[in-house]
Amino acid sequence: MASMTPTAGGQYHWVSEFSPRWCQKYLSYITGWLLAIGWQGAIVGLSFVAGTIVQGLITLNNPSYEPQQWHGTLLVIAAVAIAIGINVFLSKTLPIAEIPILILHVLGLFAIIIPLLVMAPKNDARTALLTVTNSGGWHTTGTSFMIGLLTALGSMMDFDCAVHMSEEIKNASVTLPKAILWGAGLNAVLGYLCVFTLCFTMTDIPRLLDSPTGFPFLQLFYDATESNAGTAVMAAIVIITLVMAVVSEVATASRQIWAFARDDGLPFSKFLRRVRPGWNIPLNALWVSLAFGVFIALINLGSSVALNAIVSLTISALLSSYILSIGCILSKRLRGELLPPSRFSLGKWGMATNVIALVFLVPFFIFCFFPTARPVDRETMNWNIAMFGGITIFATVWGGESRIEKGRVCRVVHEMQEMWGKPRSTELTEDTGRLAFFYCTGDKLRVQIGSNVQDPTKTSG
Predict the structure, then answer these.
(1) How many other C-beta atoms can be found within 10 angstroms of the C-beta atom of residue 217?
(2) Cα–Cα distance between 328 and 348 in angstroms, integer?
(3) Element (H or E) spanning 30, and its range?
(4) How many CA atoms lie within 13 A of 172 on its CB side?
(5) 315, 325 Cβ separation under 8 angstroms
(6) What is the spatial distance between Cα 344 and Cα 447, in angstroms, rounded to a whole number?
(7) Are the beta carbons of 109 and 193 closer than 8 angstroms?
(8) What are phi and psi of 444, to 5 degrees?
(9) Which of 76, 143, 305, 383 is deepest in the core (most CB within 10 A)?
(10) From the CA atom positions of the chain, what is the Rg in Å?
């Protein structure tokens, strides 16, 4: 899909292109909203994790320290502000800066797992690989297992991050699929190395869970090294990687809401889609991401339950966008309709891959609304379902029939206009909502229109 339609809108563009015509506009519109909220929540969620790890390190080095909610809130705001600042003032050097971060990501993992494997006590193979601990209070191990996997699922998502940067990538229809595959493949290998290491070195699970740091992995680092300094260095690798991941998520989230605003999908779309001359970045969308991050972080001052409810929406929102986009292209295959041309293809494995992906994603989407443990009260309740339903209802009511039926609008942004010395603004409005593809070959701007567009003569200019 990224090769067929490399656009900053990502999943909601794909849903518009591949879904059945009777539900095309509404599904595309709702997917855009879920993506926008999901990615904004991801910024705060990852910043919150990085900030609370810092608090855990302080607790480890100073046992008299009493963590306060406002401490965590300030750390979250600091992480968001750093990420916004890098995206605003260092945007041109960001691709270069990510090279050393990639090196840290790979080598840093080995800097963590090697000391654990050498210094920590070990479980035997049977205990490490076959023993299952059900600490969630659920009646079946299978239910506890599926709910427990949701924590790890966060690291298996966000591979659409590069997709929303596609309009700033050279040769995107080829580069994007390769980047996604390399990212998934590399992190799968590294992830398994990390998981197996943890399984063999977590010998005293109750002690890890009761750690005063609030993070079992920090306690594991300390138990293995018996050194505050060693633990701090290993944790610093995690914190730096998380903060840089926030930088990438800010870039992704800003491009996504900028793209959705181009199609008038959000409130204040005219403001959000404006690219200020000389900046070449969606600056207004970045400021919105900053404001959203600060606002959500401040909620933690009143209730950490409310903050967790908003952050938990990230998983369900992004999962639903994956399910909808993959489900739509699968339905198009099953209807026997011709897919758009692409320069990267899975060939005969395409449909099988779609089916396997849905079989994997749908159960997780269902379980992401479950509470993490029983018994359930107001504090432990998973309010994700209320947030997900509320966003869907609000988007539907706010959009109204006229906005949803307006259909997709593709604009040639001003930067593309300037390449051909045309100061006038150009729009392509598609009455049927089918997608248009803008791409460059040599010195020519080409426009490819979906087969159902009623008036393609609008592109004659």
Answers:
(1) 21
(2) 18
(3) helix 24-61
(4) 20
(5) no
(6) 19
(7) yes
(8) -115, 140
(9) 76
(10) 23
- Supply the pTM of this predicted model: 0.83
pLDDT by residue, tens only, the chain of 461 residues: 888 888 888 899 999 889 988 888 899 999 999 999 999 989 988 999 999 999 999 999 998 898 888 998 999 999 999 999 999 988 888 888 888 999 999 999 999 999 999 999 999 999 998 888 888 888 888 888 888 888 888 777 778 888 888 888 888 889 899 999 998 899 999 999 999 999 999 999 889 989 999 899 999 999 999 999 999 999 999 999 999 999 999 999 999 999 999 888 888 888 988 888 877 889 999 999 999 989 988 888 877 777 777 777 888 999 999 999 999 999 999 998 888 888 888 888 999 999 999 999 999 999 989 888 888 887 778 888 888 999 999 988 887 554 555 544 333 333 344 444 443 333 443 333 334 445 444 445 555 544 443 343 444 43
Tell me 406's DSSP state. T
Q: Judge if the upstream peptide bond of residue 100 is cis by omega within 30 degrees of 0.
A: no
Q: Are 383 and 371 in contact (CB under 8 A)?
A: no
Q: What whole-number distance in Å separates Cα of residue 68 and Cα of residue 76?
A: 13
Cα-Cα-Cα-Cα torsion 350, 356, 361, 362, nearest 10 degrees, comes to 110
HSE-CB at 140 with a 13 A cutoff on CA atoms is 4
**Tokens at 437, concatenated:** 């593809």
- Report the C-alpha gap between 135 and 6 in whole angstroms: 44
Q: How many CA atoms lie within 13 A of 241 on its CB side?
A: 16
| Closest of 429, 416, 442 to residue 275, by C-alpha | 416
**Lookup result for tokens 């490819």:** 448
